[in-house]
């Protein structure tokens, strides 16, 4: 196995690890407002998230930026909570075009926060920060592939509920966003740093 494949596998396993459910929960919350037919918007949104965490991965790995892990452990569920709340109240106060732009910015910024958590893991793996390009590329491609697989599953489940069980989209969004908000609130309380 070459270096790229090694880091690709690690990135994929890191995002798809059920023990790291906070990243999965964020993707669930991020996709709750979308239908399968909006796959292009979803793809752009997930890519914005990937770009965000890639930027932070580079900055932290090269020791240009750092935030204590206890703060990151609080900020990650906060991003989930804010996304879930935005899913519920954001739609009513915005037009569709503006909502998408705001969602992209949120995904990008929140991706940077999630990237801080990825970076601690990634930084521990690389031996030489000057030789970061291939590991970084492999790790990010692995994370992106894992995220796309998770998103495909999430949107597939939503498709079944919306089209076959005839659940209304608003009810689906309220249920998924409410569950994500509740779980993230518990995590914030468990990880509060004050």
Automatic annotation (TrEMBL):
Key words of the record: Membrane, Transmembrane, Transmembrane helix
Keyword 4Fe-4S: no
Membrane-spanning segments: 18-36, 43-65, 71-90, 102-122, 142-165, 172-189
InterPro entries in the record: Put_HupE_UreJ
Flavoprotein among keywords: no
Highest taxon of source: Bacteria
Any Pfam family the entry gives: HupE_UreJ_2
Name of protein: HupE/UreJ family protein
Organism encoding this protein: Croceivirga thetidis
